[in-house]
Design brief:
alpha/beta, 4-stranded parallel β-sheet, two-stranded parallel ribbon, 6 strands, globular
Amino acid sequence: RGSARTILKANLLGDSCARVCPVEVLCESTCVFNDSERPPIPIGRLQRYAMQHGFAPDLLPKADPTGHSIGLVGGGPASLACAGTLALLGHSPVIYEKDVWPGGLNATGVAPYKLKLEDNLDEVEYIRSLGVEIKTGVEIGVDIAAEDLLGKHKALFLGVGLGADSTLGVHGAEGDDVVGAVQWIRRLKTDPTLSIDGVMHAVIVGGGNIGLYLATEIEAQHPDVNLKVIEIDPDRAALVIDFADEILTEEMRQQIDRDEENARRRAAGRPTGEEGEAAALAAAEAAEGAGRRAG
């Protein structure tokens, strides 16, 4: 709980950041352990563990109610973090999101190997538990007028997001087999019928983080697909494919092994790995408490 409290004081979205942030490029690449040829501290996994097992709505203090209602347009990470902070300051924040899922890109724009939809929704529920009201399926200018928002709230926060995918603007870019990265990831996370069966060749235009997500997902679903990345920096293009393969072979295969082992444990009526960790943590805390009482 102490670790989770420290994380949340700095970042109310500490759980999703622990999953999405490229720690291997940022924090771990500059870890002092690298100088002595030791593995860097796995800060992302440590933060994720603290958030999974330690965070609760009562970790952070709340100010007395101010009576001020604050409207927030858009339900992505910016609005969620802002609304949570406003709630802790005693205000009454209301988020308006036109999608059916709150969370913005965390919900539908980050590949599931990084952040699953249900994990995003768990974090949204934490923000809601702080005293944030979230209204989904509400589009400003259609379901409610902007003037009405100004009349209902003391102040407004605009967190409308990054918008749709960019297009290439070249002949053939609107073809049936051409799809925007964010659009494809959204379908990947929300449409169980999505499949790339029969696809033998795939081209990813752009070697940024989204390109990395796509390459990793394609490698995971169909490793036999002939995958190419078009990027102005050839070193970056090679990095995307190499890194995607590295993530697949290490992190994703480990997760597959854990999922299979947890399925076997559930079938045998035994606790899963995470449940076992939680039980062991509870037992350790109970033993420590008993020791203090005995002392």
